[in-house]
Design goal:
This protein is mainly α. The chain has helices at 7-17, 22-29, 33-40, 48-58, 62-78, 85-104. The longest helix has 20 residues, at 85-104.
């Protein structure tokens, strides 16, 4: 999976590659067709449970879908700060390393 795609674009591509309709997938997932359409358009967020169901349905690694979903959440928080968004992400990455090391002690 390409990391540049949004979560919605990712699941839409998976659906289209399998020549499935929104209705087909929504029915299998037991959700409303319009809700799935909004998720594919990035107008609505998926739940963790739905991400797991999508991964199982499309037979893809749930980790990859979770990364796509969570990275969207991060980028939508920092994208407004265009002039130093990269610095924010680097600082966040350093903090993740720090907190992971701190948890091990």
């Amino acid at each position: 999976m390409q990391q540049e795609r949004t979560f919605g674009e990712t699941i839409k591509k998976l659906r289209e590659e399998r020549n499935l309709t929104l209705k087909d997938v929504a029915k299998h997932l037991q959700i409303d067709t319009s809700m799935l359409g909004k998720i594919e358009k990035n107008n609505r967020k998926a739940t963790k449970s739905l991400i797991e169901k999508l991964a199982a349905f499309y037979n893809v690694n749930s980790k990859e879908l979770k990364i796509a979903f969570l990275s969207d959440q991060v980028i939508y928080e920092v994208i407004e700060e265009k002039e130093f968004a990269q610095e924010i992400l680097k600082a966040a990455e350093a903090k993740v390393r720090y907190l992971n090391l701190k948890d091990k002690v």
